[in-house]
């Protein structure tokens, strides 16, 4: 099946020639990223607008040297992209002042948090925007614990210099005091694409989709109308550097490395690997998995996060990066260098490039409790249904939906995501967690997420407890899909 893609790549020169260059300042290297920790203010200390904030995020244009003499002009936080890692304590109130030094209104979304709609950071839920040249104070109590992140939630439409196409994103770590522990280094990796452009070219969906797999929602008759313009890129990075342009990740034999990985792309799911090593997945979307598993590859959709431990037991110089050769050669990678290893970075194609959410769930357990209600959500694409662009429907219509998705407080719901399109969709529900119960007919339980990839013509069922009253936005985390109809509001009765 098809998805958006470009013809050829001009970025291969970014790769090996500069792989060992170390001419950039340490603050520009892929690791470590700047970290800010909230002071230990007691609860209730942030009620006054004139009280100093725990954090300040300044939105402003920046220029990034993604590779030697290759600059990216974008918008970032605090003159960086990614923005600073925000260290928060679960249950301890914080304030964040956001200053907007651009000429367009902005929104900062706190992805994966249980917070009120008015500070969640979305126009659809009623969060006030940060006006051009103005500021806004966000006040909330961080929860749940785990790897969260923050990013722009501005609509982009046909403007590829807005929203998640920009460099406005960063990690937010909510600490409960009971973290993964027993690791020697903690490393943050954000997967990114840059300089997006429109294209009508297509490629095989299986390139980075984890294989096509079963297709229970494949229509009997496929829509053969010409596809509208979609968005792609041919320049990539991990954090702020293309492969070979920044400092390697320096490791020692015998170390355990804890990787926090987010797909901060506006465009595409990504599959990554570290040859010779396995990722012990311990959490997804910041939530501990019931059955940690060691896997060769990670599939990460836009908005998803994975926490994984890696045992450094294969000395050498390796490339951690995309399993798709063109994407990796165009920048989506970083060099991992063992102490006293001096050689060209090595890449080996994974032997089992497969991804299966269900292996991280509980085993040999009873089926999930029966839901009180079931909501079917059917995803469809209308080729060129929005002029030059595709239009996306949920249950036969584009956003908005008039009180269609109503929840009763405290009730348990089963949401059945039915993808009747030739794209894999990373769908996200704000302000809630859901539990995976079925992926293409394969049952599982115990895996809690806020974003999940629904495969090509696939079906994913999740269970949700309606325990966060207020408006909650549901959408595909691919910016163009969301902007052209692929979203809906959940409301509480």
How would you summarize what this structure contains?
The protein is an all-beta fold and about 500 residues long. About 5% of the residues lie in helices and about 40% in strands.
Q: Which characteristics define this entry?
A:
493 residues; mainly beta; 3 helices; disordered N terminus; 36 strands
Which blocks of ≥5 consecutive residues have pLDDT under 50?
Answer: 1-31, 41-47
Q: Look at the helices and sheets and give the structural class.
A: mainly beta
Radius of gyration, CA atoms, in whole angstroms: 21 Å
Count of helical regions:
3
Dominant shape: globular
**How many strand elements?**
36
The share of residues in extended strands comes to 35-45%
Q: Please summarize the sheet with the most strands.
A: 7 strands, mixed
**Spatial separation of the terminal alpha carbons:** 40 Å
Helix content: under 10%
Mean pLDDT: 89
Description:
By secondary structure, the chain is mainly beta. 3% of the residues lie in helices and 42% in strands. The chain is built from 3 helices and 36 strands. Strands 25, 26, 28, 30, 31, 32 and 34 form a 7-stranded mixed beta sheet that branches. A hairpin with a 2-residue loop joins β25 and β26 (389-394). The protein is globular and about 60 Å long. Mean pLDDT is 89; it is low at 1-31 and 41-47.
């Amino acid at each position: 099946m098809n998805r958006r893609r470009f013809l050829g790549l001009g970025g291969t020169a970014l790769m090996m020639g500069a792989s060992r260059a170390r001419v950039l300042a340490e603050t520009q290297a892929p690791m470590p990223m700047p970290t800010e920790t909230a002071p230990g203010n007691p609860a209730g200390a942030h009620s006054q607008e004139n009280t100093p904030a725990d954090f300040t995020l300044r939105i402003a244009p920046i220029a990034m040297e993604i590779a030697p003499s290759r600059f990216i002009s974008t918008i970032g936080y605090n003159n960086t992209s990614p923005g600073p890692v925000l260290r928060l304590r679960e249950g301890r109130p914080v304030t964040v002042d956001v200053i907007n030094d651009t000429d367009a209104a902005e929104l900062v979304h706190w992805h994966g948090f249980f917070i009120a709609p008015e500070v969640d950071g979305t126009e659809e839920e009623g969060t006030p925007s940060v006006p051009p040249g103005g500021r806004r104070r966000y006040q909330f109590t961080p929860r749940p614990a785990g790897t969260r992140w923050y990013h722009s939630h501005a609509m982009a439409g046909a403007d590829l210099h807005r929203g998640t196409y920009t460099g406005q994103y960063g990690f937010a770590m909510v600490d409960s005091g009971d973290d993964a522990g027993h690791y020697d280094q903690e490393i943050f990796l954000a997967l990114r694409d840059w300089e997006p452009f429109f294209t009508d070219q297509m490629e095989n969906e299986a390139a980075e989709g984890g294989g096509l797999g079963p297709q229970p929602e494949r229509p009997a008759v496929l829509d053969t109308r010409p596809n509208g313009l979609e968005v792609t890129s041919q320049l990539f990075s991990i954090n702020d550097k293309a492969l070979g342009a920044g400092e390697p990740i320096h490791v020692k034999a015998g170390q355990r490395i804890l990787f926090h990985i987010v797909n901060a792309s506006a465009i595409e799911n990504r599959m990554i690997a570290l040859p010779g090593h396995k990722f012990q997945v311990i959490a997804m979307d910041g939530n501990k998995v019931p059955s940690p598993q060691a896997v060769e590859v990670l599939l990460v959709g836009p908005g998803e996060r994975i926490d994984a431990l890696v045992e450094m037991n294969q000395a050498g110089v390796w490339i951690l990066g995309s399993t798709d050769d063109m994407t990796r050669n165009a920048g989506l990678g970083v060099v991992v260098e063992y102490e006293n290893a001096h050689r060209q970075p090595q890449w080996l194609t994974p032997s089992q490039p497969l991804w299966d959410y269900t292996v991280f769930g509980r085993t040999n357990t009873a089926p999930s409790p029966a839901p009180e209600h079931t909501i079917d959500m059917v995803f469809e694409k209308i080729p060129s249904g929005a002029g030059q662009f595709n239009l996306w429907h949920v249950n036969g219509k584009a956003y908005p939906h008039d009180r269609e998705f109503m929840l009763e407080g405290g009730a348990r719901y089963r949401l059945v995501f039915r993808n009747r399109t030739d794209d894999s969709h990373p769908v996200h529900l704000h302000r809630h967690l859901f539990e995976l119960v079925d992926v293409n007919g394969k049952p599982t339980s115990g895996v809690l997420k806020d974003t999940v990839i629904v495969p090509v013509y696939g079906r994913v069922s999740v269970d949700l407890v309606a325990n966060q009253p207020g408006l909650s936005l549901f959408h595909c985390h691919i910016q163009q899909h969301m902007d052209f109809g692929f979203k809906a509001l959940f409301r509480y009765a």
